[in-house]
Specification:
Beta-lactamase; single chain; globular; alpha+beta
Length: 464
């Protein structure tokens, strides 16, 4: 890979990651409506994701004024339903945050308590001088722990990296890890940190993270289609097979209790809508099950005027609460808007971050001002982008594989790019947008490649 392109490529090490209210209860009295008022608008938004070979299967759930809607879509076969199961990935962290809030409400722990208090005697937890890692630090990604344990991908199956990370492995990592920053100094997303939080809370509760979550959160909320541990055989039949961004089948991820709090949950759109309905009810002062704990988890923890964090929740500048998640074969989004009493669930069986773009479009649908759906390139347009382009330090070769745009860079396998417009494409593996330039005669002259604030332009080679 050439140096300029390498500078743009933010290759993901771990996919598992990785918003004023009224007093009217928002819990729906009936199940999701398969023919609700937003059916046509949702279908219009989802259609290009299926036809553009971006997603193999996706289910969308909505709540507005207490009414639920669920719509499923698939490239082939029967579409998923509200009862179909998907991996949530890092959206699990919202549940871990709620488990922490519950332990605080029970007076079992304090947010500013050192996590070492919840671990066996003799276990070493890294510090920075007198600064120790607290439960609040872990929940807010402010512990200084790296994103993942350094040996995670070296311990077994790279396609199921969290499966064999044992308790002893966790303790060894804690004893040898070097903090990236002092606890409380910076916020840097960490599966390691939230996984440790879930493990510590599970030990405090007694039975371990998965059992504690089932006993204290999933059971009381009647979320009987949500599983942090093994999915029972009958329910497992409803798991939608996951695919990579290249739409290739990939094994499911499984988790030991050690890091389960970071991304282990498998669930349905129906259950996630029920969970968000409860969150909306809590935000409006409801007195139902776990509502005080939910309100504690929703409290902004940072002194920020814009984007903020709760215990597990991300909070955007508009006051929406949300979290996303991804594993090798899935991408998820759950979010709710307490001010307007709306919620969105997107569960996709393809591990592409474009599922979150779809979630943003769903909020615009609920607002009554839907964004224009993605416009796909025609076959002729797609074919016109094929060729070689001169980037500083190397040659990029764009091609087509199974109807999808690919780019070949030196010394790397081809990367797949998904369409986000007639001339623009998104590459998940590189976290990069490419957009083709066309001259006054309509001839493709080059391509701009953007990742974050960095941009590189490559001119098209003249035809031989």
């Amino acid at each position: 890979m050439s140096d300029p392109v390498r500078a743009l490529a933010l290759v993901l090490l771990a996919a598992c990651g990785g918003s004023t209210s009224t007093t009217k209860p928002v819990g729906p009295e009936k199940g999701p409506d398969p023919d609700g008022p937003h059916k046509a608008a949702v279908a219009a938004q989802v259609k290009p994701y299926i036809e553009g070979k971006i997603l193999t299967s996706v289910v969308v759930g909505l709540i507005e004024d207490g009414k639920r809607e669920v719509y499923g879509f698939a490239a082939t076969g029967a579409p998923p339903t509200g009862h179909s199961l998907f991996e949530l990935g890092s959206a699990t962290k919202v549940y871990t945050g709620l488990l922490l809030a519950d332990a605080v409400q029970r007076k079992e722990v304090d947010l500013d308590q050192p996590v070492s208090d919840l671990l066996p005697a003799g276990v070493t937890v890294p510090t920075a001088g007198k600064d120790v890692i607290t439960l609040r630090h872990l929940a807010l990604h402010a512990s200084g722990l790296p994103r993942i344990p350094k040996t995670l991908f070296a311990r077994g199956d790279a396609k199921n990296p969290y499966a064999n990370f044992s308790e002893d492995d966790l303790y060894l990592e804690l004893a040898t890890v070097k903090l990236d920053s002092a606890p409380g100094e910076k916020i840097v997303y960490s599966n390691f940190g939230v996984g440790l939080l879930g493990f510590a809370l599970g030990r405090k509760a007694g039975p371990g993270y998965k059992a504690a979550l089932a006993e204290r959160i999933l059971g009381p909320l009647d979320l009987d289609e949500t599983f942090a541990g093994t999915v029972p055989p009958e329910a497992a039949k409803r798991i939608v097979p996951g695919t990579t961004v290249a739409l290739e089948p990939t094994p499911r991820w499984t988790f030991e209790d050690t890091l389960a709090g970071a991304g282990s949950i498998v669930s349905s759109a129906d259950d996630q809508l029920a969970f968000l309905a409860a969150q909306l009810d809590a935000a409006t002062g409801g007195k139902g099950t776990l509502r005080p704990q939910m309100r504690l988890a929703q409290e902004a923890q940072l002194q920020n005027d814009g984007d903020n964090e709760g215990l597990g929740w991300q909070i955007d500048a508009e006051g929406r609460f949300w979290h996303n998640g991804a594993t090798a074969g899935y991408h998820s989004y759950i979010g709710f808007d307490p001010k307007n009493r709306r919620a969105v669930v997107v569960l996709a069986a393809t591990s592409t971050t474009l599922a979150e773009w779809l979630a943003a479009a769903m909020f615009s649908v609920l607002e009554g001002s839907p964004k224009p759906p993605i416009v796909l390139p025609t076959e002729a347009q797609l074919a016109s982008y094929v060729g070689k382009y001169n980037a500083s330090g190397g040659v990029l070769e764009f091609g087509i594989d199974a109807g999808r745009l690919t780019v070949q860079v030196p010394n790397s396998p081809p990367f797949v790019f998904a369409p986000i417009g007639p001339r623009a494409f998104w590459g998940d593996d590189l976290q990069m947008v490419v957009e083709f330039a066309v001259d006054e005669k309509g001839v493709v002259s080059g391509v701009a490649m953007r990742s974050g604030k960095e941009q590189v332009y490559a001119e098209r080679q003249a035809a031989p």
